[in-house]
Amino acid sequence: MTPTTPSSLPAFDDHAALLAAVRPIYCALVREFVVDVPACPFEEVVSDSPESIKEAETWLQQVDAQIQVHQLRQFLQTTPLANEIVLRHLLVHHLHKPSKSTSDRDKTDFLLVQYFSLCAPSGMEDSDIDLDYVAQVLEPVLGPQEPVLPAWLKPLEAIMQSAARCKRLSELLHGGTLEQGRKLKSDNAAHFFEPSAMVAFARFSFMIRRIFFRLMHDDLNAIQDGLRELERRNVATIDCRRAQFSAEEPVGRLRMICQSWKVMFHAEYSSGQPLRMLVDLRAAVDDALQNGAKKPQAKGAAAASVRTTGASKK
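Given the sequence above, the corresponding structure tokens read:
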């Protein structure tokens, strides 16, 4: 995708040491996802000879070619191996590749956000997360920066503001906001690895992640509140076919599923099948609450009609 490495990136003095440093993660990825590659040809130490370095690079490239960004995301968010130093080594490894693919771009984008999330204080307000602060946190991997938002990245701010106005997860997933950010990234792929662009995208992705988690938890809480209300009304089952459950799904079982989802969704946002189920389940619960509210009125109206009819006959 891009043939060169930006000269402003900090140098890694010992390339052999970097290769050895990322080895444990790559070996763990091979085991986790049963990647079909030859056995790792080097141990904890890589010789400085060009032949040894080339052999190590070739093996790592073979693994990289088969590991997708969603697999890297899943692994790094669940393994105890992932810490600040490991993420830094992985970033340096990807950033200093002489030729970078679209997959390298997506992995770098994720790694930058993951690194920033790990290093930044958890209690920060959104207003504190400006370009200068993000550049400061990413300095160990991107080098010193005085970030100025490139003209082609000006739309990022409007996209973030649009995402922040979303009231439900369905709005974020289906409203086109996420697609706008992806399109901006892909349309300007040749400029992604410019340090100022990586800082801007890291901030954008981190802010979108925050909005995603807020909306996701809001939906989960709304579903659980709705299920409690349905139980209070003595509603035992609801039609959840739109969320790929049954037409008479027990309310108690749905509450247990929501509890398990709180753990499962403690991960990077995506538009995968489980999230669509969450969005559809909230819609199903909302429908049940609305229909349940109408039924007593309908019964009351029918009873009144019977009384009226009976009185007229008399």
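The beta strands are 237-238, 249-250. Try to locate this feature in the token string yourself.
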